[in-house]
Amino acid sequence: MPRTMLTDECWSKLIRLMLKTGRVYDKPEHRNTFEGILYRMRVGCPWRDVPQAFGDWSTIYRRFNLWSKKGILMQLFTELRQLADLEWEFIDGSIVKVHQHATGACSEDKEAIGKSRGGNTTKIHMAVDSSGLPVDFIVTGGEVHDSKAAIELLEQLPDAEHVIADRGYDSEKVREHIRAKNGVPTIPRKRNSKIGNGDIDWCLYKYRHLVENVFARLKHYRSVATRYDKLARNYASTLALACCLIWRPMWVD
């Protein structure tokens, strides 16, 4: 039997959250299927190579695709992030290479795959809380600049007292949007700025490593570190599931 990732206690809490969505029935085979999804996320193998011990690979894929389409995995993440400490929010982006299996014929669904000299890429725009736990994210093509995606990310984030980001977010539109949500932007200006950085709380800025730490933890999972999913919603669901596992020590009844 391949290595599994969920304890009995962890699964009991997880299935309660899934049933709470009203879109999942309580079936005994769901745990094995979920372990198969986690196995594929961890090792990054094709769906056909998921061990038979977890069930038929096509059943595991169809259920993952269905849960992704219904937004169930995103709802799990949404439920868990309600525990976030929103005194500080840290935002940043990270580029992910797209495997050739994730590209091919065009689809009517959103793919969020960008093309550049480096090949096909996707960018994860992530926000984390004061404890270094993921709060929300969006997925775009790899060519999208951080400051352009920042407004969309900030709009779906809950209000925070301080929002911290690096120089890639040096934009007055971003700062104004943060202030409009009653937050204080801590974003250094570029070196050629005439305004300078006299108003930056550098002590607080040093904690920006918390968002980098989340990217490092997420990329322990090979299906996150390299994108194998063609559709943006499926990759986002994989990412949401990885975020849920980061939240796992914080799960409470």
UniProtKB/TrEMBL annotation:
Extract the coiled-coil ranges from the record: none
- Domain Insertion element IS402-like: where? 6-77
Pfam families in the record, alphabetically?
DDE_Tnp_1, DUF4096
Q: What is this protein called?
A: Transposase, IS4 family protein
Taxonomically, which superkingdom? Bacteria
Q: What's a Gene Ontology MF term here?
A: DNA binding
GO BP of this protein: DNA transposition
- Which segments constitute the Transposase IS4-like domain? 91-246
